[in-house]
Amino acid sequence: MTATLDAPTPAAATAAAALPAPPPAYRTPIVLAVLAVVTAVMALATPAGATNVRISTNTDLFQIPVFAVPGRATAWLLTVLVLAAAAYAFVLARGRRRIPVWVIVVAGVCALLALLVLISAGKTQVVPVTGLLAGTLFLATPLVFGALSGVVCERVGIVNIAIEGQLLAGAFAAAVVASMAGSAYVGLIAAPLAGVAVGALLAFFSIRYQVNQIIVGVVLNVLVVGLTSFLFSTVLRENPQLNSRTALPTLPIPLLSEIPLVGPVLFRQNLLVYLMYAIVIALQILIFRSRWGLRLRAVGEHPKAADTVGIDVNRTRWRNTLLGGAVAGLGGAFFTVASGLAFGKEMTAGRGFIALAAMILGRWSPTGAVAAAVVFGLSDQLRILMATLAVPVPSQFLLMLPYVVTILAVAGFAGKVRAPAAEGIPYVK
Amino acid sequence: MRLELRGITKRFGAFTANDAIDLVVEPGQIHAILGENGAGKSTLMNVLYGLYTPEEGEIVVDGVPRTFAGPGDAMAAGIGMVHQHFMLVPVFTVAENVVLGQEPMARGLIDAGSAATVVRETAESLGFHIDPNALVGDLPVGVQQRVEIVKALSRKAELLILDEPTAVLTPQETDELIEIMRTLAASGTSILFITHKLREIRAVADTITIIRHGRVVGTAEPTTPETELASLMVGRSVSLGVDRAPAQPGEPGLAVRGLVVRDAHGVPVVDDVSFDVARGEIVAVAGVQGNGQTELVEAILGVTTPEHGSIELAGRPIDGLGVRDRLDAGLAFIPEDRSTDGVVGEFSIVENLVLDRVGAAPVSRGGALDVAYLRRNAAERVAEFDVRTTSIDREVGTLSGGNQQKVVLARELSRDLSVLVASQPTRGVDVGSIEFLHRRIVAERDKGAAVLIVSTELDEVLALGDRIAVMCGGRLVGIVPGGVSRDVLGLMMTGMPPEEAARQAAEHHTLLGEADLAAELQAPDGEPAVVQDGAVVQDAAVVQDASHESEEQR
């Protein structure tokens, strides 16, 4: 018997033999290289002349005057940065290491900035960088909320295609309740409740009756669009006081908001954006380090394993699907009270699906989702800027920009990501 | 813990999986539960672990009757279970898996430090080491099993259920598991050890309870001879041994040259494999599940396209041929998972017997099936292959595993064939049918077929293989003559070359290997050892008696 204990352990040999190194995956570096080529083409097309840039606002502690940036040189610098990102990704891929999300985000942002230089070089208008970045963050807000909702739901094993519907329901509830109460803040309470209602339907059908979750999600989106459009053209039309414009006030944070560039971008926003910061940080920590997060992920990866240690799988799924609905619903408030707009038919315009793409691109992590959402937000912001700069491109094409970026991003970069293993599979004992 | 089960009855509809089962496990005892596949062992353990609620009977823990609404209750009562399919989250670390459900907390978050300490201390108390921060998915199955044991013990389990724990282990890993079980029992932990493998039971159990058709049919001591245990398990007298003439290898049948198959991630799962199988011989491929055997046979059949290499059938390359053409060229194939790849469960026996031949005469004429021929064919095959059924029109899905496998074999062997590739031919098959299936396979060899058997059961490999090829990590470790000792095969299954394995096996015997050796020296009463190629082969748990009993379940 002692002889067997002294025998060489086969475990090491098995481990080495059972886990041959996979060949390098060059998909992401190749896509980045293509992006570098595109950026180079844009740099070539950039007209001579400078882009006038303003990065100060009136309230900053000190002022930086408007200055001119040489267009071509900047475009080439950006090209080099994209190329560097591609090269770094190539080195990582060759070493079979993971390519972090930020590499992709940096490359995407540089490519979009090159586009900005292309359209603004040689023009007399000033490009307000601060406004551009603040607008990017603001436009990314509903995407971040939607993506966080997706992260919570999918991490627990429920596919949430209904983000679009939850955003729309949140937008509607926020507008109506804020109008009735006469306070935009009350709208922020109503929005998550509307999202919870949609989440409850999703949970009810997919957990209780094990209906295919993608189908339930699509149907819920159609339901919410139909319902809100109906109420909009009947109840809200007859009672316009129920759909008035209420706006969340901008709340500059003292001192922080006076830092040049960073201040106006990050700290001169409204409460919804500050809530977003808090929720992103909280979820990032809690999902990966708390008891709730560990159980959430266990249920989404291997529900039976969770069950055998006494975790109630379906109850966990119910609760977190409702939580996800609340997060997306809160994000819906962006479209109405946070933007100072009244509710309009189908005003979310597919942002829920872009949020879904941001979640996938961000690899089911809150911070990754934020990074991806910022790329999409920037493309949205560029669309607006291009319209004001009177770029000779039909406006319909400009409207397509965020969606084109979404398709390219998901097709080009999302190929290797791994979804939670039990996602979309009902748990039956 | 002293555990007592009194009259446990569990029914699924009209089917009684457990019928008034009584069982007592004393503290510190290793209590084996022996039974065939489908005898009701796993159902009983799931009742005990709170996953199923029994219709009748009670569970008494240390004299107190308990009811378990879920696994949480069972754990709270001190019962831990290591499932056959591990209940571990592959993307979690060892520590996360171990503390899941009872996480140590510090400042509102999980206390990673004390979680790691729990893992280290529990593992050390059992005499091994585990890195708490390793990802479970990166660990070999043997280590994953230890994580499961650590997980159960860290929940203060005083009774540990091990459900078919050796199914995924090499003989050497099995040995290490047996050591751990003994350490546990010595420290007072009771162990319920579920298996259908006779040899292991005799090596480790203090007492044995035998279950058949959901009932306790007897208890035995570990000193009971294997034949007697097998008789109790199957329900009739059986004898063990292998009866098989030496092979007469002839012309080349199947040749595989430099075969490389990559999986979806680009990882080579079959890595430069070359071998020949002559007509009239059986080559058995041994290896732990998931070391490329599945992909190898799929490439031979043609459902997987290899990246490199070539395959020849009777001297003729078949690389460009599709599955249909390969079958027509004389290849017969028995898939490893009969329920998904072997039969269509909702089809009748009649239909399943001609699945691969519907396109041509005599099965179809003028574009329509010849029903008269089909029925005649089915009646003949059912008789020839001893398929136990009430009617040839029965849905195959309602037959027992052994009878389903006979239908698959009947279909594949009813054509002219030059090469037979059989993957796990007796997995999940009752002991009675195993012997029949083995005899049919040997008969095909004697008729001149080249036979390739893939099996993860060493007993089967040793029972059938004229030569034995061992695979590990997608590579062919080596080919050794049939009848080589299981210690050598076990070491080769970890990737050790044959010469090195033979040298080390001569120095250190595994517990089961020692048992073999002892049996060989004592020349056990009434069990003739079949000597072949100078090696002793007497261990295959093949039941000789073919007087079948009702095998139809449900």
UniProtKB/TrEMBL annotation, chain A:
It is found in: Cell membrane. This is ABC transporter permease. The keyword Transmembrane helix applies. It holds the Pfam family BPD_transp_2. GO terms for cellular component: plasma membrane. GO terms for molecular function: transmembrane transporter activity. Keywords: Cell membrane, Membrane, Transmembrane, Transmembrane helix. The chain crosses the membrane at residues 30-53, 73-92, 99-119, 131-151, 158-178, 184-207, 214-236, 271-288, 322-341, 353-376, 397-415. It is a multi-pass membrane protein. PANTHER family: GUANOSINE ABC TRANSPORTER PERMEASE PROTEIN NUPQ (PTHR43370:SF1), SUGAR ABC TRANSPORTER INTEGRAL MEMBRANE PROTEIN-RELATED (PTHR43370).
Automatic annotation (TrEMBL), chain B:
SMART domains: AAA. This is ABC transporter ATP-binding protein. SUPFAM superfamilies: P-loop containing nucleoside triphosphate hydrolases. PANTHER family: CARBOHYDRATE TRANSPORT ATP-BINDING PROTEIN MG119-RELATED, GUANOSINE IMPORT ATP-BINDING PROTEIN NUPO. Keywords: ATP-binding, Cell membrane, Membrane, Nucleotide-binding, Repeat, Translocase, Transport. Its main location: membrane. It is found in: Cell membrane. InterPro entries: AAA+_ATPase, ABC_carbohydrate_import_ATPase, ABC_transporter-like_ATP-bd, ABC_transporter-like_CS, P-loop_NTPase. It holds the Pfam family ABC_tran. It is a peripheral membrane protein. GO terms for molecular function: ATP binding; ATP hydrolysis activity. GO terms for cellular component: plasma membrane. It comes from the Bacteria. CDD domains: ABC_Carb_Monos_I, ABC_Carb_Monos_II. Residues 3-238, 254-498 form the ABC transporter domain.
